[in-house]
Amino acid sequence: MQLKSVNREFWVADQITAQDLPEIARQGIRTILCNRPDGEGADQPNIIEIQQVAIQFGIQVEYLPVVSGKVSDEQAQQFKQRYQQAAKPLLAYCRTGTRSITLWALSQVAEQSLDQMLLTGKGLGYDLQGLVPRLSQQSQPQSGLVAKYSVVIVGAGAAGISVAASLLSRQPQLDIAIIDPAEIHYYQPGWTMVGGGIFPPEKTVRTMASLIPKQVQWIKAAVAAFDPDHQQVLLEGCKPLNYDALVVCPGLKLNWQGIEGLSETLGKNGVTSNYRYDLAPYTWQLVSQLKRGKAVFTQPPMPIKCAGAPQKAMYLSADHWLKQGVLKDIQLDFYNTGAVLFGVAAYVPALMQYVQRYQAQLHFGHQLVKVDGAQQRAYFKVTEGEHSSIVETDFDLLHVVPPQQAPDFIRASNLVDAAGWVNVNQHTLQHTQYPNIFALGDVMNAPNAKTAAAARKQAPIVAVNVLQYLKGSSLFARYDGYGSCPLTVERGKIVLAEFGYGGALLPSFPKWLLDGQKPSRLAWLLKEQILPPMYWDGMLKGHEWLVKPKLPSH
Length: 554
What we know:
Elements: E1 3-5, E2 10-13, H1 21-26, E3 31-34, H2 47-54, E4 60-63, H3 73-85, E5 90-93, H4 98-108, H5 114-123, H6 131-139, E6 148-154, H7 158-170, E7 176-179, E8 184-186, H8 191-195, E9 205-207, E10 217-219, E11 223-227, E12 232-235, E13 239-248, E14 253-254, H9 262-265, E15 271-272, H10 280-289, E16 293-299, H11 309-324, E17 330-336, H12 348-357, E18 361-364, E19 366-372, E20 377-384, E21 387-394, E22 397-399, E23 404-405, H13 408-411, E24 437-439, H14 452-470, E25 483-490, E26 493-499, H15 521-537
Parallel strand pairs: 2-5, 3-4, 3-5, 6-7, 6-13, 7-10, 13-24, 15-22, 16-17, 16-22, 17-18
Antiparallel strand pairs: 1-2, 8-9, 11-12, 12-13, 14-23, 19-20, 20-21, 25-26
Protein name: Bifunctional protein tyrosine phosphatase family protein/NAD(P)/FAD-dependent oxidoreductase
Domain Beta-lactamase hydrolase-like protein phosphatase-like: 3-109
Domain FAD/NAD(P)-binding: 149-269
């Protein structure tokens, strides 16, 4: 028997026996619901045997048999009624638990989001993806007509809007829908500069309506699930949307809850993060006010959005303190879960010069797991081989980068790899299983840096490849893994890291003009003056300066 807790009120299990009742009672179960018909298997105890022993433990046993693979809507309603009336916690079981958790999911669809139900099932080892087309059919209008577009784009961030603009620049009459419930669009690369006191926060925000191309149908809704076998996206409320080609680029999820105590103390007690629009100004407030004490900067496990951002915050802060003459009174610590300062070795020497200039202490293999804001204490898990321990430190300023993962509705789908990222061919960005699905930006599993510069290179490639797919061609443009990370090592100078797959250096400028392995004022000018308008008025408008893709000749 395998007991699995779905929530505090509901458990599922495979076939139980009378010998399992003591353990079930120890878990506090008050009702057992059998969903397996008697006589289904030769070695299966019947319901009477279970009842006779359960009564000794004060457990009520009920019977709602379901034939394997044939869960009906009527049975789901019966389950719902019994579930509501039963003493909790309730344990439902069948041969494997699949029928029981399916009944629960169908009975709860009005009360819980579909993506959370799919994710819960997946986490317990149950694939509930087969429910998606069923729920889609239930929610279709009586006319049977479901909206359909040639291209549906999930996500209106940097990647999604850029793909839409690049598609329209090539095929202006293409019918495109873009799905995103957000009203506001952020220029996230600018938040490092906000935290450094260089940009005002307003410079990094615009309304979504001002950026999504007018020819594109903007659907202000959240995605609940995917049904790739029927070429459908399910919106919240299980409303289906059909497509010929699907582009998946909703970005990633910042898991603030992944660090104990963090959410409760963000924005106060000296705890901040440049990874949120509302917190980046607080970073600058803390930096500008700190005259002595300890400043701690953290980096979570990879992959994360802009892997250089955690140390960029440290460099800009330290540069300010150095110029104010107070750095000598401030202890600077950088705690990195990883084993190296930066993933591309060619840029490390230049960065280490600044680590030494600012006298920063580097701590590798340290993962932030808990924050006590009131006491200003940070706790790190340190792993050495098979052993791990917890070390703690005090702080006056704590800059946190949260752990990151794909959004829940992505991880709950069957589009992902074992780590929960959308599974694509790293060169064509086409899904490995569904040829009419493409992905780009932070959500997919190609081994490139998750940066806006990467999305700028990927967007026109995906646009070209989607159009090639729609016209029946398999001749695709190829992505080389390009990403860029402008490492703000001091105010006025940047180490411009540009690289592709395997750490290959992919500079955009000749070395005599801009040597990316050395701090450069020209790179700072690029970051401060050129990249923001290039983002708003170039990338998001479909202008492909320096990134126009080429199809192979054969």
